[in-house]
Amino acid sequence: MDLCGKSLVVVGGTGEIGRVLVRALAERGARPRVIGRNTVQLEQVARFAERTARLDLRDSFAARRALAEVTDDAGCDGLLLCAGRVAFAETGKLPAPLVRELFEVNLLGAISVIEAALPLIRTPGVVAALTGAVVRTRPARMAHYVAAKAGLSAYLDVLRREHRRRGLLVVDAQPPHVETGFACRAIYGSPPALPAGISASEVAERLLDAISEDQPVVQWPLPATMRAGRLAS
Fold first, then answer.
1. I need a surface site. Which of 12, 23, 165, 215 has the fewest CB within 10 A?
2. Can you give the pTM of this predicted structure?
3. DSSP code, position 136
4. What gap in Å lies between CA 210 and CA 16, rounded to an integer?
5. Distance of CA 86 to the CA centre of its chain
6. How far apart are CA 44 and CA 181, in angstroms?
7. Is-contact 151 208, C-beta < 8 A?
């Protein structure tokens, strides 16, 4: 897909990766529309976006309203999803409300906003999401986060097969640890010692390159410790 002139909705556009992604889209001539949870960051990213709307992914019924706000019901060329929450705890140790929150944000909320966007996406279009290297490495003390992200990855795979004839490109981006402070903002627990991560800019550029080149899965080489399943993404 040629990104120039395309209207693309970025969900999670107020996060560290999301803000970089919005700027990268604008630099490539795209017309980003931003949906995010942080009102202050929405105001700051607005200079790169044509429209903005607030959305908490735990509120699945609000997805259609937020999409209508940023598209003005005129449709769009794609949806890029880079929102998430993380927690660190052994199985059986994470409080049930937080388990529910991880699945509401990372899986159920993600699916809700994707399915709300599908009727709005013009052909050919794109749906892209960041799932992370954890779908391959499955590190300890992250069972619930891994299960949610792996579920999203599986959903994207089926979505790709079901909508291939329609001309919908579905991209599953699986970056390793990214230097954004995401792990340090966990809703529970503390992250393990992490190796030097890649930059948010690298993630954004690789994702946009994949969309431009019609590449369905984006993976990075993993450090030996991550291949052993000991570290988080």
1. 165
2. 0.94
3. H
4. 20
5. 13
6. 19
7. no
Contacts of residue 183, defined as CB under 8 A and 6 or more positions apart, other chains included, come to: 86, 88, 177, 191, 194, 232
Inter-residue contact 122 to 163 (CB < 8 Å): no
Q: How far apart are CA 192 and CA 141, in angstroms?
A: 9
Closest CA to 93 of 184, 185, 190: 190
Q: CA distances (Å), 15 to each of 153, 204, 215, in order? A: 20, 12, 24
DSSP string, 181-230: STGGG-SSS-PPP----B-HHHHHHHHHHHHHTT-SEEE----HHHHTT-
CA gyration radius, the chain: 17
Ordered structural domains, the chain, with CATH: 7-224 (3.40.50.720)
Give residue for tokens 């969900």: 11
d(CA 140, CA 10): 30
Per-residue pLDDT of the chain (233 residues; tens, 9 = 90+): 999 999 999 999 999 999 999 999 999 999 999 999 999 999 999 999 999 999 999 997 899 999 999 999 899 999 999 999 999 999 999 999 999 999 999 999 999 999 999 999 999 999 999 999 999 999 999 999 999 999 999 999 999 999 999 999 999 999 999 999 999 999 999 998 888 899 999 999 999 999 999 999 999 998 665 555 554 44
CB 137 within 8 A of CB 227: yes
29 by DSSP, 3-state: which?
A: coil
